[in-house]
Design goal:
By secondary structure, the chain is an alpha/beta fold. Helix content is 46%, strand content 16%. The chain is built from 14 helices and 10 strands. Helix 2 runs antiparallel to helix 9 and helix 11 packs parallel to helix 14. It is globular, with a radius of gyration of 20 Å. The structure holds fructose -6-phosphate (F6R). Fructose -6-phosphate binds next to helix 4 and helix 11.
Length: 354
């Protein structure tokens, strides 16, 4: 049941803090530990991450972990592209498939392809016993419980977190006490967002009638820009696209006028670079919403709305935290528009045909 929540999506967003804590305990301290320990020192010449939609965005987050923490090459593909592009797959490489349902047709076809080429296949999956689960050499369950809202929320967070734990397992640092406290901090910060969701509603009220939304992010926040845009278009039926912040002037800036909102996701890392982006959008009368570090007067005063977040202590996990703010924003915009949030038109929870 939905309990006190108006929609399953809202309930599932609120479940995230507890699920994050549970997953960390499972993989670091309890039964899941032996599965992760099997990755200790593991090195593949290349990882091929493949998924669709939101799970693909989680793959983009995980790629950054494998490359930056483990210095291992990781390619990420949209499953419907990978299966037809004759990918180069060599012995020793690993296919990593990310899926909530474990039944997505394109993702399963990619797994078949990897198997035909004789490479190992691993999964990050929610549904135990699903086709993907049954056909994988190794499974890393995300333990999200049933996700009913068609728009995926908690599955994304837990997929990305599982990928992070895999990365730390390969590095051999699962016993680092800082890891556990970092994940606890993530859970606390998501909890704070859940408690302050009304302030995100106020931002939604300012922008929900606008015609188009361009989400921008750099580096580790680029996948979050993509995911924020996907969530919004799925449930609010407005045009939304995610862009790498540096690409704004290479095309999408042509769209900017008073009917367009730029939602910029900015970490403390590259704050100054974003100031000029914001100025460019404002100069064209665009509406600027910035999701960024709290106490950043240099950028706050430029924005039409500022969503202040506390990035401290989350060097690796901040994308997962920021994403929850965008989940709430999409939810509140959709609610103001009166759409069917849990069952958006034209969408199915699991896409089992090509
Ligand atoms: C987005 C969404 C879809 C799924 C995609 C993959 O909110 O729900 O984009 O993420 O269809 O589904 P799974 O993860 O079941 O393979």
């Amino acid at each position: 049941t939905k309990g006190p929540y108006e929609h399953y999506m809202l309930k599932e967003i609120h479940e995230q803090p507890a699920l994050v804590d549970k997953l960390a305990a499972f993989y670091i301290k309890n039964e899941g530990r032996k599965e992760l320990d099997s990755l200790k020192g593991f090195k593949a010449p290349a990882w091929h991450l493949t998924a669709c939609g939101t799970a693909w965005h989680a793959g983009l987050v995980i790629k950054n972990y494998f490359e930056q923490i483990n210095r291992q090459r990781a390619d990420v593909d949209i499953a419907s592209e990978f299966r037809y592009r004759e990918p180069i797959l060599n012995k020793g490489e690993v296919g990593l498939f990310i899926s909530q349902s474990g039944e997505t047709a394109d993702t399963l076809a990619c797994q078949e392809l990897c198997k035909e080429k004789g490479i190992e296949t691993f999964s990050i999956v929610n549904t135990e016993g699903s086709t993907l689960f049954r056909n994988s050499d190794k499974n890393f369950l995300i333990h999200a419980g049933v996700e009913i809202g068609v728009a995926s929320t908690k599955a994304f967070t837990l997929q990305a977190l599982t990928g992070y734990l895999m990365s730390r397992a390969m590095e051999g640092t699962l016993d680092d006490p800082k890891l556990f406290s970092e994940i606890q901090l993530l859970s606390n910060r998501i909890g704070e967002l859940c408690a302050q969701s009304d302030s995100l509603k106020e931002v939604a009220e300012k922008i929900y009638t606008k015609k188009g939304f361009i989400f921008t992010g750099r580096g580790k926040y680029f996948p979050i820009a993509l995911e924020g845009a996907l969530k919004l278009k799925e449930i609010a039926y407005v045009h939304a696209e995610g862009y790498a912040a540096g690409e704004l002037k290479h095309g999408p800036i042509a769209l900017i006028d008073e009917n367009i909102v730029n939602i910029a996701v900015v970490g403390p890392e590259l704050l100054e670079k974003t100031v000029s982006n914001v100025e460019e959008v404002k100069a064209r009368r665009g509406i600027m919403v910035v999701v960024g570090p709290k106490n950043s007067p240099e950028i706050e005063h430029l924005a039409d709305a500022y969503i202040p977040l506390d990035f401290n202590g989350l060097p690796n996990l901040s994308p997962l935290y920021v994403n929850v703010a965008l989940q709430f924003l999409a939810y509140h915009i959709a609610k103001l528009k009166g759409t069917d949030i849990d069952k958006p038109r034209n969408l199915a929870k699991s896409v089992t045909v090509e």
